[in-house]
Each structure stands twice: as structure tokens, then as C-alpha cells.
């Protein structure tokens, strides 16, 4: 049987950690900060995905909107 792997922050040395990574447990977050935070890897990935989606929506809107004459 496999043992559970340790969290990413516990496997990284101090010099390999990103700024703001205090080894916070993700279960401490509530509300939107549970999904969009700068502390966990998943939170940073969700922020990046939301940013890409927003930029894509802005580009799509500008391509689809009617042209002014």
C-alpha cells in the first residue's frame, strides 16, 4: 500500500519556495480565497486560468462587436 506523499511545500527547501509560501494548509481558506490565492500551487494556477479567460473574453468581445461607421 502506498503512503500519502507529503505536500509540495514540505518537500521544497527554503530556497526553492516561492515568495509568500508559508506552508499554509489549503483547508484554512474560505470563500473565494479557497480557489484564488497566492499561497498554494492550485490557487496560483486558478488565478492564471481566470486571467487567461478574462483576456480571451475581452478579445472575443472586441472581435464580435459591431463596427462603427
Automatic annotation (TrEMBL):
This protein's GO CC annotations: mitochondrial membrane
- Which portions of this protein are annotated as coiled-coil regions? none
User: Which InterPro entries does this entry report, sorted A to Z?
Assistant: ATPMK
Keywords of this entry: Membrane, Mitochondrion, Transmembrane, Transmembrane helix
The protein's superkingdom reads Eukaryota
* Membrane topology (UniProt): Single-pass membrane protein
The protein's location, in the record's own words, is: Mitochondrion membrane
- Transmembrane stretches, start-end: 47-64
Which PANTHER family does the record match to this protein? ATP SYNTHASE MEMBRANE SUBUNIT DAPIT, MITOCHONDRIAL, ATP SYNTHASE MEMBRANE SUBUNIT K, MITOCHONDRIAL
Q: What is this protein called?
A: Up-regulated during skeletal muscle growth protein 5
Amino acid at each position: 500500500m502506498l503512503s500519502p506523499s507529503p505536500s509540495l511545500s514540505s518537500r521544497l527547501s527554503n530556497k526553492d519556495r516561492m515568495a509568500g509560501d508559508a506552508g499554509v494548509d489549503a483547508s484554512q481558506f474560505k470563500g473565494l480565497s479557497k480557489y484564488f490565492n497566492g499561497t498554494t500551487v492550485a490557487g496560483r494556477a486558478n488565478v492564471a486560468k481566470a486571467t487567461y479567460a478574462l483576456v480571451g473574453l475581452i478579445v472575443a468581445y472586441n472581435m464580435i462587436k459591431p463596427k462603427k461607421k
